[in-house]
Amino acid sequence: MFYYFLTQQVKALVQGMADAFPGGVLVFDAANRTAVKMIAKTWLRTAKIKDVGAYFAVSDAPKEIGEWDSRLQVTSRGYMLGYNDLKDPSVSGFFRFLAKVGDNGMKMQIVKIRFGGKK
């Protein structure tokens, strides 16, 4: 859902949540600018949605989001890796390929933000 907001809006929301929920955790998916542009071209066009103009994107969530506020402890892992162990023999070669493209090339990731104490 954050894809459809400006970075400043996401930052304000996260900081507001840190104020309201010290000790809380927020988890969401994110991707780099290239991936988000692809989402806009495919998913939004397919859904016939035309009035979305803001696209939140990050490549290195711990570094980029972590700089927003000292109370944020940010970690991330690859989006595809967040759901499957790619070393498991039951994982198909195609899924491994998608994981490599998505997680590495497009920086698709699951982001976890733990909210620390007060400022």
Give an account of the 3D structure:
With 119 residues, the chain is α+β, with helices and mostly antiparallel strands. The chain has one domain. Helix content is 39%, strand content 17%. It is built from four helices and three strands. It has helices spanning 7-20, 33-46, 61-66, 93-105, and strands at residues 25-30, 72-78, 109-115. It has a three-stranded antiparallel β-sheet with strand order 1-3-2. The protein is flat and about 45 Å long. The mean pLDDT is 80.
State the low-pLDDT regions, or none: none
- Tally of alpha and pi helices: 4
Task: Estimate what percentage of residues fall within beta strands.
Answer: 15-25%
For the biggest β-sheet, the strand order reads 1-3-2
Main sheet: strands, sense, barrel: 3 strands, antiparallel
Order of helices and strands: HEHHEHE
Would you kindly provide a brief summary of this structure?
The chain has helices at 7-20, 33-46, 61-66, 93-105; strands spanning 25-30, 72-78, 109-115. The chain has one domain (2-114). The protein is flat.
Give descriptors for this structure:
119 residues, 17% strand, alpha+beta, three-stranded antiparallel beta sheet
Task: Describe the SSE topology.
Layout: H1 7-20, E1 25-30, H2 33-46, H3 61-66, E2 72-78, H4 93-105, E3 109-115
Antiparallel strand pairs: 1-3, 2-3
